[in-house]
Structure formats: C-alpha cells, structure tokens
Amino acid sequence: MEETNGPRIVISLSVMTGVSLLLMLLRFFCKARYGKRFGWDDHLLSASWLCLVTYSALTIVAVNYGIGRRKALIPPGNLVVALELLYIGRFFGIIALAISKSSFAVTLLHLARGPWQRAVIWTILVSLNLVMWVCGFSLFFQCTPVQKAWNLDAPGSCWDSRVQVNIGIGAGAYSAAMDFILAIFPTVLIWHLQMGTREKVGVVVAMSLGVFAGITAIVKSYFITGTARSSDFTFSSADLLIWSASETAVTIMAASIPFLRLIAKEVSGKTQQRSAARYTKNLTAATATARPKAPESDGYDSEKDSLDGVLKEEHRATIRIAYRTGPDTNSSTNTSANTMPMPMPMPMPMPTPMARYPNVI
C-alpha cells in the first residue's frame, strides 16, 4: 500500500475548522442571548475563520492532486496544480493568523482603561499585522515570474530558499511572542475590576488560553525548517500544513471561549436554584417527620373531660360494705342500727399529662 499523509491532512484540517466554527458560533450566540453588542472583534473573527476555511479547502484540494504523497509518484501536471493551490492557501493561512490575533487584541481594547494599556495593545496590533502581511505577500515576490514558485520547470529565478525560511521562522517567532503577551495582558486589565476573586480568576484563565496559540506557533516554526530541508517536500509538508491551520484555529477558539462563561453562569445559577429548592423540600419533609404525633384519643375531648371522667369512675367504684356486729334478726331497725357505713376510700391521684406521656418533651 502506498505511503501517504493525505488522509491525516484532510481529517486534521476538517476537525480544526469545524471545532473553531462551533466555538465561534457559540460566542455569537452568547452575545446575542445576553444582549452583548457585536463589535469589530466579532467581524474580524468571522473574517479570520473565512480565511481559515479557504486555506483548508485549498489544501484539501491540493491533497487530491498529490500533496501528502511521495513526490516521485505524483504526475508532473498534478504537481504544478497542487503547489499552486498550496501557495495560494498559505497566503490565506497567514492572513487568517493576523486577523484572528487582531480580533483578540480589539477585545482587550474594550477592557483597557489607562493610556499606557491602550498604547501597548495598539503597538501589538499594528506591528503584528505589519509582520504577518509582509510575510504573506512575500510568497508572491520570491520568484520572478510568480509562476516559477509552483512550476519548477518554468523559466525565471527565485530567492534563495533560506530567505523564505528565515522570513517564515521570524514571523512565527514574533507571532508566538505576541500570543504570550496577549495571554498575560488580561491579568493586568481585569484584576482591578469590581469582581469577586473567584470570578476574576475564571475570566483571566479563559482569556489566557491564547498561550496555546503561541505554543502552536513555535511548533509550526520548527516544521518550517524540517520541510525546507526535506528532498520530498510533498510528503514531509504534512505537519507544517496541519500546524499552520492549528495556530489560527486555536486562536479563534481562545478568543471565543471567554464568552461561553455567560452560558456557564446561567447553567450554574439554575443548578443552584434547583439544589436550593430540593434542599428546602427535603428540610420541610424532615421537619414534618420529626414533629411529635398527637396522642391517641382516650375517649375524652379535652383535659377537663378527662378529669371529670376519672372522678366519675372513682364514684362508680365507691361501694358500701355492711358489717353485721350481731346475729341477723332480719329486723329493719336492727339492720339500720347495726349497719356501719364503710369510709369511702381516698381517690387515686390523677396522673398529670406529663406523667401520662413521658416521651413527649
């Protein structure tokens, strides 16, 4: 089976383009749902994604013409078309980088308060665009005529390959440095705002994800050197093509994720409300269960009725016992005279309610 990097290129570019689109759309959804105004940072982010999808589409078409395969196995006609598509795609990839980082810088401008903060951000914004646009347009000036860049058999001349490599590495290093600065800068801008410490930390972490874009820029610069040194660049350029798209995709993701905290806060608030309602319901049920039960009825409707009943029972239990002191003569007079009333026994003390229900406190 032929060894090729084509499928890896296609899958990687498709996934990164799709995920970055998803997060960008979620950013727009959050801003629309919570009444946040759309600004230049949103328009720039959309433009950068369009450049990214153009780069990915041209690169995927170039794969169909042989990019990712061994150079010796690619027909000459297909190779010319593939390299032309790559050169045009690389231009859009570089411009996508410049615009995506500009979008994040514009977002930071909304948070800047002091003059020096705005000056730093504007310096990064202008210098980064200058470097990246020069790097992008240099692709079309390295050969005379320009067709010589993708048609190796065409007459003409080109710069030394090391010049273009150095331009690419220099632009990548500067891009990485700006990514790290932009990732650290939110700490300076946000820490003085009237927010809770926990919320500040969350926002700073979310807005500092651009550090990963800086890491991808470093990795991409490493593969620029490796691809330039390879004699089979159509096969070995796979990593460079993938990491070039990764830098832009990660930048778009890093610029979109901070706005997703609006959804996270709403979901968290609803979860806390449900938890509080559940806690209140359980507490009410537990209180009702722990409430002492009413004593079983003893046939009386009140404590007074109970007292009267006890006394009546005592009266019914009172008897007279006659003792005969002499022989029975069946004489009514003798019986009356000799009959002695027995003293009524002392009534038993009625238990108090506490004594009757000792477990009720």
UniProtKB/TrEMBL annotation:
Keyword set, alphabetical order: Membrane, Transmembrane, Transmembrane helix
Question: Any idea where this protein resides?
Answer: Membrane
> Superkingdom, according to UniProt?
Eukaryota
Ranges for domain Rhodopsin come to 26-264
Topology within the bilayer: Multi-pass membrane protein
Q: Where is this region: Disordered?
A: 287-311, 325-345
GO CC terms for this protein?
membrane
Entry's family note: Belongs to the SAT4 family.
| PANTHER family from the UniProt entry | INTEGRAL MEMBRANE PROTEIN, PTH11-LIKE INTEGRAL MEMBRANE PROTEIN (AFU_ORTHOLOGUE AFUA_5G11245)
Q: What is this protein called?
A: Rhodopsin domain-containing protein
